[in-house]
Design a protein that fits this description.
The complex is a heterodimer of chains A (321) and B (269). Chain A is of the alpha+beta class and 321 residues long. Chain A has 10 helices and 10 strands. In chain A, 38% of the residues lie in helices and 14% in strands. In chain A, a hairpin with a 2-residue loop joins strand 1 and strand 2. In chain A, helix 3 runs antiparallel to helix 6 and helix 3 runs antiparallel to helix 9. The longest helix of chain A has 25 residues. The N and C termini of chain A lie far apart (54 Å). In chain B, strand 8 and strand 9 form a beta hairpin. Chain B is α+β, with helices and mostly antiparallel strands and 269 residues long. Chain B is globular, with a radius of gyration of 17 Å. Chain B contains 8 helices and 13 strands. At the A-B interface, strand 10, helix 4 and helix 7 of A face helix 4, helix 5 and strand 10 of B.
Chain lengths: 321, 269
Protein backbone atom coordinates (compact mmCIF):
# COMPACT_ATOMS: atom_id res chain seq x y z
CA UNK A 1 0.00 0.00 0.00
CA UNK A 2 1.64 3.26 -1.12
CA UNK A 3 2.13 5.94 1.54
CA UNK A 4 1.00 9.46 0.71
CA UNK A 5 0.66 12.81 2.47
CA UNK A 6 -2.60 13.07 4.32
CA UNK A 7 -3.21 9.33 4.38
CA UNK A 8 -4.38 7.67 7.57
CA UNK A 9 -2.17 4.86 8.78
CA UNK A 10 -3.80 3.14 11.75
CA UNK A 11 -4.42 6.07 14.17
CA UNK A 12 -1.87 8.38 12.55
CA UNK A 13 -2.17 10.92 9.76
CA UNK A 14 0.88 11.20 7.52
CA UNK A 15 2.14 14.77 7.28
CA UNK A 16 5.45 14.67 5.42
CA UNK A 17 8.01 12.23 4.08
CA UNK A 18 11.19 12.76 6.10
CA UNK A 19 13.46 10.27 4.40
CA UNK A 20 13.56 7.23 2.19
CA UNK A 21 16.27 4.60 2.00
CA UNK A 22 16.53 1.16 0.52
CA UNK A 23 15.48 -0.53 3.74
CA UNK A 24 12.89 1.85 5.23
CA UNK A 25 11.09 5.15 4.90
CA UNK A 26 10.30 7.60 7.68
CA UNK A 27 7.32 9.92 7.89
CA UNK A 28 6.28 12.79 10.13
CA UNK A 29 2.79 12.00 11.39
CA UNK A 30 0.15 13.29 13.75
CA UNK A 31 -1.38 11.06 16.39
CA UNK A 32 -5.04 11.22 17.31
CA UNK A 33 -4.25 13.49 20.28
CA UNK A 34 -2.44 15.97 18.04
CA UNK A 35 1.00 14.82 19.17
CA UNK A 36 3.65 14.68 16.43
CA UNK A 37 5.54 11.43 15.98
CA UNK A 38 7.83 9.80 13.44
CA UNK A 39 6.69 6.58 11.74
CA UNK A 40 9.19 4.20 10.24
CA UNK A 41 8.01 1.74 7.56
CA UNK A 42 10.07 -1.12 6.16
CA UNK A 43 10.68 -1.04 2.43
CA UNK A 44 8.25 -3.24 0.48
CA UNK A 45 11.12 -5.45 -0.69
CA UNK A 46 11.76 -6.44 2.93
CA UNK A 47 8.23 -7.41 3.82
CA UNK A 48 8.76 -11.10 3.04
CA UNK A 49 11.57 -11.20 5.56
CA UNK A 50 10.53 -12.25 9.09
CA UNK A 51 13.71 -10.57 10.35
CA UNK A 52 12.12 -7.17 9.56
CA UNK A 53 9.67 -7.41 12.41
CA UNK A 54 12.37 -8.78 14.66
CA UNK A 55 14.56 -5.74 13.88
CA UNK A 56 11.70 -3.43 14.81
CA UNK A 57 11.27 -5.26 18.09
CA UNK A 58 14.95 -4.88 18.86
CA UNK A 59 14.95 -1.22 17.85
CA UNK A 60 12.05 -0.69 20.23
CA UNK A 61 13.75 -2.62 23.01
CA UNK A 62 16.96 -0.67 22.55
CA UNK A 63 15.04 2.61 22.35
CA UNK A 64 13.24 1.80 25.60
CA UNK A 65 16.51 0.96 27.32
CA UNK A 66 18.49 4.00 26.23
CA UNK A 67 18.13 7.25 28.12
CA UNK A 68 20.17 10.09 26.67
CA UNK A 69 19.17 13.55 25.48
CA UNK A 70 20.70 12.89 22.05
CA UNK A 71 18.68 9.76 21.42
CA UNK A 72 14.93 10.04 20.71
CA UNK A 73 12.75 7.30 22.12
CA UNK A 74 11.23 4.49 20.08
CA UNK A 75 7.67 4.44 21.43
CA UNK A 76 5.85 1.44 20.01
CA UNK A 77 5.46 -1.03 17.18
CA UNK A 78 2.09 -0.68 15.50
CA UNK A 79 0.74 -3.98 14.22
CA UNK A 80 -2.79 -2.76 13.43
CA UNK A 81 -2.08 -2.07 9.79
CA UNK A 82 -1.13 -3.93 6.60
CA UNK A 83 2.36 -4.40 7.92
CA UNK A 84 4.12 -3.38 11.14
CA UNK A 85 5.75 0.00 11.56
CA UNK A 86 7.71 1.72 14.29
CA UNK A 87 6.47 4.81 16.16
CA UNK A 88 9.19 7.13 17.40
CA UNK A 89 9.59 10.40 19.24
CA UNK A 90 9.49 13.43 16.98
CA UNK A 91 12.47 15.75 17.18
CA UNK A 92 12.14 19.33 15.97
CA UNK A 93 15.09 20.53 14.02
CA UNK A 94 16.96 20.29 10.77
CA UNK A 95 18.87 17.33 9.42
CA UNK A 96 22.60 17.96 9.43
CA UNK A 97 22.56 17.02 5.73
CA UNK A 98 20.11 19.87 5.13
CA UNK A 99 22.27 22.26 7.13
CA UNK A 100 25.23 21.34 4.92
CA UNK A 101 23.15 21.67 1.77
CA UNK A 102 22.02 25.10 2.86
CA UNK A 103 25.27 26.48 4.26
CA UNK A 104 27.95 24.52 2.39
CA UNK A 105 30.25 24.13 5.40
CA UNK A 106 30.61 25.24 8.99
CA UNK A 107 33.34 27.25 10.71
CA UNK A 108 35.69 25.15 12.83
CA UNK A 109 34.28 26.15 16.25
CA UNK A 110 30.72 25.29 15.18
CA UNK A 111 31.82 21.98 13.61
CA UNK A 112 33.62 21.07 16.82
CA UNK A 113 30.47 21.90 18.78
CA UNK A 114 28.47 19.42 16.70
CA UNK A 115 31.13 16.73 17.07
CA UNK A 116 31.40 17.31 20.80
CA UNK A 117 27.72 16.45 21.24
CA UNK A 118 27.87 13.52 18.81
CA UNK A 119 30.88 12.05 20.59
CA UNK A 120 29.17 12.42 23.96
CA UNK A 121 26.20 10.46 22.60
CA UNK A 122 28.54 7.84 21.13
CA UNK A 123 30.37 7.48 24.43
CA UNK A 124 27.03 6.74 26.09
CA UNK A 125 25.92 4.31 23.35
CA UNK A 126 29.19 2.42 23.33
CA UNK A 127 29.08 2.11 27.10
CA UNK A 128 25.67 0.42 26.63
CA UNK A 129 27.13 -1.96 24.03
CA UNK A 130 25.22 -0.35 21.18
CA UNK A 131 26.99 0.58 17.96
CA UNK A 132 25.26 2.67 15.32
CA UNK A 133 27.16 1.50 12.21
CA UNK A 134 25.50 4.00 9.85
CA UNK A 135 26.27 7.46 11.15
CA UNK A 136 25.93 10.14 8.50
CA UNK A 137 24.55 13.70 8.26
CA UNK A 138 21.17 12.25 7.17
CA UNK A 139 20.87 10.44 10.51
CA UNK A 140 21.71 13.46 12.67
CA UNK A 141 19.35 16.26 13.59
CA UNK A 142 20.31 19.74 14.79
CA UNK A 143 17.69 21.24 17.06
CA UNK A 144 16.92 24.95 17.10
CA UNK A 145 19.02 25.03 20.28
CA UNK A 146 21.94 23.52 18.29
CA UNK A 147 21.82 20.19 20.07
CA UNK A 148 22.54 17.00 18.15
CA UNK A 149 20.08 14.11 18.01
CA UNK A 150 20.75 10.70 16.45
CA UNK A 151 17.51 9.84 14.73
CA UNK A 152 17.94 6.48 13.02
CA UNK A 153 19.27 3.22 14.39
CA UNK A 154 18.28 1.21 11.36
CA UNK A 155 21.22 -1.10 11.09
CA UNK A 156 22.50 -0.88 14.63
CA UNK A 157 20.65 -4.06 15.34
CA UNK A 158 20.95 -5.91 12.07
CA UNK A 159 21.03 -9.65 12.02
CA UNK A 160 20.20 -12.37 9.53
CA UNK A 161 20.79 -12.10 5.79
CA UNK A 162 18.27 -9.77 4.24
CA UNK A 163 18.04 -9.86 0.50
CA UNK A 164 18.44 -6.42 -1.03
CA UNK A 165 19.10 -4.88 -4.38
CA UNK A 166 21.62 -2.08 -4.84
CA UNK A 167 19.23 0.62 -3.64
CA UNK A 168 19.04 -1.17 -0.31
CA UNK A 169 22.79 -1.36 0.25
CA UNK A 170 23.12 1.59 2.60
CA UNK A 171 20.51 0.06 4.86
CA UNK A 172 22.44 -3.18 4.95
CA UNK A 173 26.00 -2.20 5.66
CA UNK A 174 26.35 1.57 5.91
CA UNK A 175 26.76 4.53 3.62
CA UNK A 176 29.95 4.39 1.54
CA UNK A 177 31.11 7.96 2.23
CA UNK A 178 31.10 7.30 5.97
CA UNK A 179 31.91 3.59 6.09
CA UNK A 180 35.13 2.57 7.75
CA UNK A 181 37.54 0.47 5.66
CA UNK A 182 36.80 -2.58 7.79
CA UNK A 183 33.06 -2.21 7.14
CA UNK A 184 33.77 -1.91 3.42
CA UNK A 185 35.70 -5.17 3.63
CA UNK A 186 32.71 -6.85 5.22
CA UNK A 187 33.24 -6.61 8.99
CA UNK A 188 30.19 -5.75 11.01
CA UNK A 189 31.56 -2.55 12.46
CA UNK A 190 31.72 -1.44 16.06
CA UNK A 191 32.93 1.49 18.14
CA UNK A 192 35.89 2.06 15.81
CA UNK A 193 33.67 2.38 12.76
CA UNK A 194 31.34 4.78 14.57
CA UNK A 195 34.36 6.94 15.42
CA UNK A 196 35.55 6.75 11.82
CA UNK A 197 32.13 7.94 10.66
CA UNK A 198 32.28 10.78 13.21
CA UNK A 199 35.63 11.77 11.73
CA UNK A 200 34.18 11.69 8.22
CA UNK A 201 31.29 13.87 9.36
CA UNK A 202 33.68 16.37 10.96
CA UNK A 203 35.70 16.45 7.74
CA UNK A 204 32.56 17.16 5.72
CA UNK A 205 31.37 19.85 8.12
CA UNK A 206 34.64 21.74 7.63
CA UNK A 207 35.35 21.10 3.96
CA UNK A 208 31.81 20.84 2.61
CA UNK A 209 32.29 17.36 1.17
CA UNK A 210 33.10 13.93 2.65
CA UNK A 211 36.72 12.68 2.69
CA UNK A 212 36.16 10.61 -0.46
CA UNK A 213 33.79 11.40 -3.28
CA UNK A 214 33.20 9.59 -6.54
CA UNK A 215 30.82 9.00 -9.42
CA UNK A 216 29.43 5.92 -7.70
CA UNK A 217 29.61 4.18 -4.33
CA UNK A 218 32.19 1.66 -5.56
CA UNK A 219 34.57 4.46 -6.49
CA UNK A 220 34.15 5.96 -3.01
CA UNK A 221 34.78 2.61 -1.31
CA UNK A 222 37.84 1.97 -3.47
CA UNK A 223 39.36 5.27 -2.37
CA UNK A 224 38.58 4.63 1.27
CA UNK A 225 40.52 1.35 1.08
CA UNK A 226 43.47 2.68 -0.89
CA UNK A 227 43.86 6.39 -0.35
CA UNK A 228 44.05 9.06 2.36
CA UNK A 229 41.92 12.23 2.40
CA UNK A 230 43.38 15.58 1.49
CA UNK A 231 44.45 17.51 4.60
CA UNK A 232 41.73 19.89 5.78
CA UNK A 233 44.23 22.70 6.30
CA UNK A 234 44.28 23.11 2.50
CA UNK A 235 40.67 24.22 2.57
CA UNK A 236 40.24 26.24 5.76
CA UNK A 237 42.17 28.17 8.40
CA UNK A 238 42.40 25.71 11.25
CA UNK A 239 44.17 25.46 14.60
CA UNK A 240 47.50 23.60 14.56
CA UNK A 241 47.11 19.85 14.86
CA UNK A 242 43.69 19.48 13.21
CA UNK A 243 45.18 17.57 10.26
CA UNK A 244 46.69 15.08 12.70
CA UNK A 245 43.32 14.70 14.48
CA UNK A 246 41.56 13.89 11.22
CA UNK A 247 44.39 11.62 10.09
CA UNK A 248 43.96 9.64 13.30
CA UNK A 249 40.16 9.58 13.13
CA UNK A 250 40.20 8.43 9.48
CA UNK A 251 43.16 6.06 9.70
CA UNK A 252 42.65 2.95 7.57
CA UNK A 253 44.15 0.89 10.35
CA UNK A 254 41.50 0.85 13.08
CA UNK A 255 44.10 0.13 15.77
CA UNK A 256 45.64 3.53 15.04
CA UNK A 257 42.37 5.46 15.49
CA UNK A 258 41.13 7.01 18.70
CA UNK A 259 40.38 4.24 21.16
CA UNK A 260 37.18 5.85 22.39
CA UNK A 261 34.76 8.69 21.81
CA UNK A 262 36.20 10.38 24.91
CA UNK A 263 39.73 10.27 23.49
CA UNK A 264 38.50 11.75 20.20
CA UNK A 265 36.64 14.50 22.07
CA UNK A 266 39.75 15.31 24.14
CA UNK A 267 41.80 15.54 20.94
CA UNK A 268 39.37 18.12 19.55
CA UNK A 269 39.90 20.30 22.62
CA UNK A 270 43.70 20.14 22.28
CA UNK A 271 44.53 19.20 18.67
CA UNK A 272 48.12 20.43 18.98
CA UNK A 273 48.82 17.47 21.29
CA UNK A 274 47.83 14.86 18.68
CA UNK A 275 50.38 13.10 16.48
CA UNK A 276 49.43 11.63 13.13
CA UNK A 277 49.33 7.80 12.94
CA UNK A 278 52.76 6.27 12.36
CA UNK A 279 51.83 4.16 9.36
CA UNK A 280 49.54 6.57 7.57
CA UNK A 281 49.98 5.62 3.91
CA UNK A 282 51.42 8.27 1.61
CA UNK A 283 48.83 9.93 -0.56
CA UNK A 284 48.82 8.05 -3.86
CA UNK A 285 48.68 9.75 -7.20
CA UNK A 286 46.98 8.05 -10.07
CA UNK A 287 49.61 6.53 -12.31
CA UNK A 288 49.21 7.65 -15.89
CA UNK A 289 51.34 5.65 -18.33
CA UNK A 290 54.36 7.71 -19.47
CA UNK A 291 53.39 7.34 -23.11
CA UNK A 292 50.06 9.07 -22.56
CA UNK A 293 51.58 12.08 -20.80
CA UNK A 294 52.99 13.41 -24.09
CA UNK A 295 50.61 15.99 -25.63
CA UNK A 296 51.69 15.20 -29.20
CA UNK A 297 50.89 11.54 -28.67
CA UNK A 298 47.41 12.50 -27.43
CA UNK A 299 46.85 14.54 -30.61
CA UNK A 300 48.02 11.61 -32.74
CA UNK A 301 45.69 9.23 -30.85
CA UNK A 302 42.70 11.53 -31.38
CA UNK A 303 43.54 11.94 -35.07
CA UNK A 304 43.85 8.18 -35.58
CA UNK A 305 40.55 7.53 -33.83
CA UNK A 306 38.79 10.17 -35.89
CA UNK A 307 40.20 8.70 -39.09
CA UNK A 308 39.17 5.20 -38.09
CA UNK A 309 35.68 6.37 -37.28
CA UNK A 310 35.38 8.10 -40.63
CA UNK A 311 36.54 5.01 -42.51
CA UNK A 312 34.04 2.82 -40.69
CA UNK A 313 31.22 5.26 -41.49
CA UNK A 314 32.21 5.38 -45.16
CA UNK A 315 32.34 1.58 -45.35
CA UNK A 316 28.92 1.29 -43.69
CA UNK A 317 27.19 3.75 -45.97
CA UNK A 318 28.90 2.31 -49.05
CA UNK A 319 27.30 -1.05 -48.26
CA UNK A 320 23.91 0.20 -47.22
CA UNK A 321 21.39 -0.30 -50.02
CA UNK B 1 15.64 -34.94 4.43
CA UNK B 2 12.66 -35.35 6.78
CA UNK B 3 11.86 -31.62 6.71
CA UNK B 4 12.43 -31.18 3.01
CA UNK B 5 9.52 -29.58 1.25
CA UNK B 6 10.80 -29.86 -2.26
CA UNK B 7 9.38 -29.91 -5.71
CA UNK B 8 11.10 -32.33 -8.01
CA UNK B 9 10.74 -32.90 -11.68
CA UNK B 10 12.56 -35.28 -13.90
CA UNK B 11 12.61 -35.79 -17.60
CA UNK B 12 14.51 -37.86 -20.04
CA UNK B 13 14.82 -36.63 -23.56
CA UNK B 14 17.08 -36.12 -26.46
CA UNK B 15 19.09 -33.10 -27.37
CA UNK B 16 20.05 -33.49 -30.97
CA UNK B 17 21.75 -36.85 -31.05
CA UNK B 18 22.36 -36.88 -27.32
CA UNK B 19 20.18 -38.08 -24.49
CA UNK B 20 19.63 -35.72 -21.63
CA UNK B 21 18.22 -36.00 -18.16
CA UNK B 22 16.97 -33.12 -16.05
CA UNK B 23 16.06 -33.01 -12.39
CA UNK B 24 15.23 -30.08 -10.16
CA UNK B 25 14.41 -29.44 -6.54
CA UNK B 26 13.25 -26.28 -4.83
CA UNK B 27 12.62 -25.57 -1.17
CA UNK B 28 11.81 -22.43 0.82
CA UNK B 29 14.57 -23.17 3.33
CA UNK B 30 14.30 -22.85 7.10
CA UNK B 31 13.95 -19.09 7.53
CA UNK B 32 11.94 -17.55 4.73
CA UNK B 33 8.16 -17.55 4.92
CA UNK B 34 7.72 -18.17 1.21
CA UNK B 35 9.65 -19.71 -1.64
CA UNK B 36 10.38 -16.92 -4.10
CA UNK B 37 12.54 -19.15 -6.29
CA UNK B 38 11.11 -20.60 -9.46
CA UNK B 39 12.43 -23.03 -12.04
CA UNK B 40 11.11 -23.99 -15.44
CA UNK B 41 12.27 -25.81 -18.53
CA UNK B 42 11.07 -26.99 -21.90
CA UNK B 43 12.37 -29.88 -23.96
CA UNK B 44 10.36 -29.92 -27.21
CA UNK B 45 8.73 -33.24 -28.01
CA UNK B 46 8.79 -32.43 -31.72
CA UNK B 47 12.18 -33.35 -33.22
CA UNK B 48 12.09 -30.52 -35.75
CA UNK B 49 11.37 -27.94 -33.07
CA UNK B 50 14.03 -29.51 -30.89
CA UNK B 51 16.58 -29.26 -33.68
CA UNK B 52 15.65 -25.66 -34.51
CA UNK B 53 15.21 -24.22 -31.02
CA UNK B 54 16.85 -26.64 -28.62
CA UNK B 55 15.89 -27.08 -24.94
CA UNK B 56 15.75 -24.24 -22.47
CA UNK B 57 16.19 -24.44 -18.68
CA UNK B 58 16.04 -21.57 -16.20
CA UNK B 59 15.98 -20.62 -12.53
CA UNK B 60 14.88 -17.34 -11.02
CA UNK B 61 15.13 -15.90 -7.51
CA UNK B 62 12.55 -13.19 -6.77
CA UNK B 63 12.88 -10.10 -4.58
CA UNK B 64 9.87 -8.25 -3.29
CA UNK B 65 7.46 -7.76 -0.45
CA UNK B 66 4.43 -9.99 0.19
CA UNK B 67 3.99 -12.23 -2.84
CA UNK B 68 5.84 -9.94 -5.26
CA UNK B 69 9.03 -12.00 -5.28
CA UNK B 70 7.11 -15.17 -6.15
CA UNK B 71 5.31 -13.34 -8.94
CA UNK B 72 8.53 -11.86 -10.32
CA UNK B 73 10.40 -15.15 -10.49
CA UNK B 74 7.48 -17.14 -11.91
CA UNK B 75 6.66 -14.51 -14.50
CA UNK B 76 10.29 -14.18 -15.53
CA UNK B 77 10.82 -17.92 -16.02
CA UNK B 78 7.56 -18.54 -17.86
CA UNK B 79 7.82 -15.49 -20.09
CA UNK B 80 11.41 -16.38 -20.97
CA UNK B 81 10.32 -19.79 -22.27
CA UNK B 82 7.37 -18.32 -24.10
CA UNK B 83 9.34 -15.51 -25.73
CA UNK B 84 12.19 -17.79 -26.74
CA UNK B 85 10.06 -20.42 -28.43
CA UNK B 86 7.88 -17.87 -30.19
CA UNK B 87 10.87 -15.96 -31.54
CA UNK B 88 11.47 -16.01 -35.31
CA UNK B 89 13.61 -18.87 -36.53
CA UNK B 90 15.84 -16.55 -38.55
CA UNK B 91 17.47 -15.28 -35.37
CA UNK B 92 20.50 -17.12 -34.06
CA UNK B 93 19.97 -19.00 -30.75
CA UNK B 94 21.98 -16.49 -28.75
CA UNK B 95 20.04 -13.62 -30.29
CA UNK B 96 16.73 -15.30 -29.51
CA UNK B 97 17.79 -15.86 -25.93
CA UNK B 98 18.98 -12.30 -25.50
CA UNK B 99 15.75 -10.91 -26.94
CA UNK B 100 13.75 -13.21 -24.67
CA UNK B 101 15.58 -11.73 -21.68
CA UNK B 102 14.71 -8.27 -22.91
CA UNK B 103 11.03 -9.19 -23.21
CA UNK B 104 11.11 -10.56 -19.68
CA UNK B 105 12.58 -7.30 -18.37
CA UNK B 106 9.84 -5.25 -19.99
CA UNK B 107 7.17 -7.62 -18.71
CA UNK B 108 8.33 -7.74 -15.07
CA UNK B 109 8.97 -4.00 -14.97
CA UNK B 110 5.53 -3.26 -16.42
CA UNK B 111 3.81 -5.60 -13.98
CA UNK B 112 5.50 -3.87 -11.07
CA UNK B 113 4.66 -0.48 -12.48
CA UNK B 114 1.02 -1.31 -13.05
CA UNK B 115 0.16 -3.20 -9.87
CA UNK B 116 0.90 -1.35 -6.64
CA UNK B 117 1.21 -4.66 -4.73
CA UNK B 118 4.09 -5.66 -7.01
CA UNK B 119 5.81 -2.30 -6.95
CA UNK B 120 9.57 -2.60 -7.29
CA UNK B 121 9.53 -6.40 -7.60
CA UNK B 122 12.64 -7.85 -9.16
CA UNK B 123 14.23 -11.19 -9.86
CA UNK B 124 17.40 -12.86 -10.94
CA UNK B 125 17.24 -15.02 -14.04
CA UNK B 126 19.73 -17.58 -15.28
CA UNK B 127 19.04 -19.74 -18.32
CA UNK B 128 20.76 -22.63 -20.08
CA UNK B 129 20.03 -23.34 -23.74
CA UNK B 130 21.06 -26.66 -25.29
CA UNK B 131 20.85 -27.02 -29.04
CA UNK B 132 22.68 -29.58 -31.08
CA UNK B 133 26.07 -30.00 -29.52
CA UNK B 134 26.29 -26.47 -28.16
CA UNK B 135 25.19 -24.64 -25.07
CA UNK B 136 24.49 -21.00 -24.30
CA UNK B 137 23.96 -19.38 -20.92
CA UNK B 138 22.09 -16.11 -20.40
CA UNK B 139 22.33 -14.56 -16.97
CA UNK B 140 21.27 -11.62 -14.80
CA UNK B 141 21.72 -11.63 -11.03
CA UNK B 142 23.44 -13.97 -8.63
CA UNK B 143 22.11 -17.43 -9.36
CA UNK B 144 24.87 -19.60 -10.76
CA UNK B 145 25.36 -21.92 -13.71
CA UNK B 146 28.03 -24.56 -13.21
CA UNK B 147 29.49 -26.89 -15.80
CA UNK B 148 30.89 -30.21 -14.64
CA UNK B 149 33.07 -32.20 -17.00
CA UNK B 150 35.39 -35.07 -16.11
CA UNK B 151 35.18 -34.20 -12.44
CA UNK B 152 36.12 -30.55 -12.94
CA UNK B 153 33.56 -27.88 -12.07
CA UNK B 154 33.54 -24.44 -13.63
CA UNK B 155 31.23 -21.53 -12.88
CA UNK B 156 29.97 -20.18 -16.19
CA UNK B 157 28.27 -17.11 -14.76
CA UNK B 158 29.64 -14.03 -13.04
CA UNK B 159 27.70 -12.90 -9.98
CA UNK B 160 26.09 -9.52 -10.36
CA UNK B 161 26.50 -8.82 -6.68
CA UNK B 162 28.30 -6.02 -4.90
CA UNK B 163 30.78 -8.42 -3.31
CA UNK B 164 31.64 -9.97 -6.68
CA UNK B 165 32.14 -6.55 -8.19
CA UNK B 166 34.34 -5.47 -5.28
CA UNK B 167 36.37 -8.65 -5.68
CA UNK B 168 36.78 -7.94 -9.37
CA UNK B 169 38.17 -4.51 -8.50
CA UNK B 170 40.65 -6.02 -6.07
CA UNK B 171 38.90 -4.55 -3.02
CA UNK B 172 38.15 -7.96 -1.48
CA UNK B 173 39.93 -11.28 -1.34
CA UNK B 174 38.16 -14.53 -2.16
CA UNK B 175 37.40 -15.38 1.48
CA UNK B 176 36.26 -11.83 2.27
CA UNK B 177 33.90 -11.92 -0.72
CA UNK B 178 32.34 -15.20 0.44
CA UNK B 179 31.23 -13.68 3.76
CA UNK B 180 30.76 -10.04 2.72
CA UNK B 181 27.25 -8.59 3.29
CA UNK B 182 27.45 -7.28 -0.27
CA UNK B 183 27.16 -10.86 -1.57
CA UNK B 184 23.40 -10.43 -1.13
CA UNK B 185 23.28 -7.03 -2.81
CA UNK B 186 22.20 -7.36 -6.41
CA UNK B 187 23.85 -4.93 -8.80
CA UNK B 188 21.83 -6.17 -11.76
CA UNK B 189 18.38 -7.73 -11.74
CA UNK B 190 15.33 -8.13 -13.92
CA UNK B 191 12.47 -5.74 -13.18
CA UNK B 192 14.32 -2.66 -11.97
CA UNK B 193 14.37 -1.26 -15.49
CA UNK B 194 12.59 -2.09 -18.74
CA UNK B 195 16.04 -2.62 -20.24
CA UNK B 196 18.37 -5.38 -19.13
CA UNK B 197 21.78 -6.49 -20.28
CA UNK B 198 22.21 -10.25 -19.70
CA UNK B 199 25.66 -11.77 -19.68
CA UNK B 200 25.95 -14.39 -22.43
CA UNK B 201 28.41 -17.23 -22.76
CA UNK B 202 28.52 -20.54 -24.61
CA UNK B 203 30.49 -23.53 -25.74
CA UNK B 204 30.35 -27.09 -26.98
CA UNK B 205 28.75 -29.96 -25.06
CA UNK B 206 30.10 -33.48 -24.66
CA UNK B 207 28.50 -36.68 -23.42
CA UNK B 208 28.86 -36.82 -19.66
CA UNK B 209 28.56 -33.07 -19.16
CA UNK B 210 26.41 -31.93 -16.26
CA UNK B 211 25.08 -28.40 -16.00
CA UNK B 212 23.68 -27.06 -12.74
CA UNK B 213 21.55 -23.96 -12.32
CA UNK B 214 21.55 -22.99 -8.66
CA UNK B 215 20.09 -20.07 -6.71
CA UNK B 216 22.48 -18.27 -4.39
CA UNK B 217 20.89 -19.56 -1.21
CA UNK B 218 22.30 -23.02 -1.88
CA UNK B 219 25.85 -21.81 -2.43
CA UNK B 220 26.00 -20.22 1.01
CA UNK B 221 26.18 -23.77 2.35
CA UNK B 222 27.44 -25.97 -0.48
CA UNK B 223 30.70 -25.52 -2.36
CA UNK B 224 30.97 -26.03 -6.13
CA UNK B 225 33.06 -29.13 -5.45
CA UNK B 226 30.32 -30.47 -3.13
CA UNK B 227 27.77 -29.85 -5.85
CA UNK B 228 29.82 -31.61 -8.51
CA UNK B 229 30.15 -34.60 -6.21
CA UNK B 230 26.42 -34.75 -5.57
CA UNK B 231 25.19 -34.34 -9.14
CA UNK B 232 26.05 -37.74 -10.51
CA UNK B 233 24.45 -38.29 -13.96
CA UNK B 234 23.32 -41.78 -13.05
CA UNK B 235 21.15 -40.49 -10.19
CA UNK B 236 20.46 -36.85 -10.84
CA UNK B 237 17.18 -36.73 -8.94
CA UNK B 238 18.78 -37.99 -5.75
CA UNK B 239 21.62 -35.53 -6.31
CA UNK B 240 19.47 -32.41 -6.49
CA UNK B 241 17.47 -33.54 -3.47
CA UNK B 242 20.66 -34.14 -1.51
CA UNK B 243 22.06 -30.76 -2.50
CA UNK B 244 18.96 -28.97 -1.24
CA UNK B 245 18.81 -31.10 1.91
CA UNK B 246 22.47 -30.42 2.64
CA UNK B 247 21.94 -26.67 2.32
CA UNK B 248 18.95 -26.92 4.64
CA UNK B 249 20.83 -28.97 7.19
CA UNK B 250 23.65 -26.44 7.22
CA UNK B 251 21.36 -23.48 7.81
CA UNK B 252 18.79 -23.04 5.05
CA UNK B 253 18.83 -19.27 5.48
CA UNK B 254 17.32 -18.60 2.07
CA UNK B 255 15.23 -20.28 -0.61
CA UNK B 256 17.06 -23.19 -2.22
CA UNK B 257 16.81 -24.35 -5.84
CA UNK B 258 18.98 -26.73 -7.83
CA UNK B 259 18.30 -27.75 -11.43
CA UNK B 260 20.68 -30.23 -13.03
CA UNK B 261 20.87 -31.26 -16.68
CA UNK B 262 23.03 -34.20 -17.70
CA UNK B 263 24.08 -34.87 -21.31
CA UNK B 264 24.11 -38.59 -21.99
CA UNK B 265 25.57 -40.73 -24.73
CA UNK B 266 24.37 -40.56 -28.30
CA UNK B 267 20.69 -41.50 -28.66
CA UNK B 268 21.33 -43.74 -31.65
CA UNK B 269 18.53 -44.57 -34.09
Amino acid sequence: MPLTKGAMVADYRLLDLLGEGGMASTWLAEAGDGRRVVLKFPDTTQLGDPAVFERFRRELAIGERLDHPAIPKALAICEDWHHPFLVMDYVRGELLSEVLRRRGRLPWPEAVGVLRELLAALAYLHAQGVYHRDLKPENLMLTPEHHVKIIDFGIALMGGRPRVTWRGFSGLAGTPQYMSPEQIRGERGGAGSDLYAAGAILYELVRGQPPFVGDNPLAVMYQALNDVPEPLSRFAQLPPGVDAVLARALCRDKTQRFASAAEFAAALEAPQTVTAPEDAPPRRRAKIPTLLREPLLWLLAVALLTAAGTLIAIAHFAHTP
Amino acid sequence: MANLNATVRRRNGEVGDLRLEVAAASDRGRVRERNEDFFAYYVPGDRARLADYGSLFCVADGVGGHAAGEVASAEAANVLLQEYYFAPLRHRPEQRLRRAFQSVAVHVFSLGDYHSDFHNMQTTLTALLLRGKRYWVGHVGDAKCYHVRAGRVRQLTRDHSLAAQMRGLGMLGAEEARSHPGRHVLMRSVGVDPLVRPDMTGGATQPGDVFALVTDGVMDYVTPADLAGLLVPTDLEAGVLRAVATANARGGGDNLTVMAVAIGEDAGA
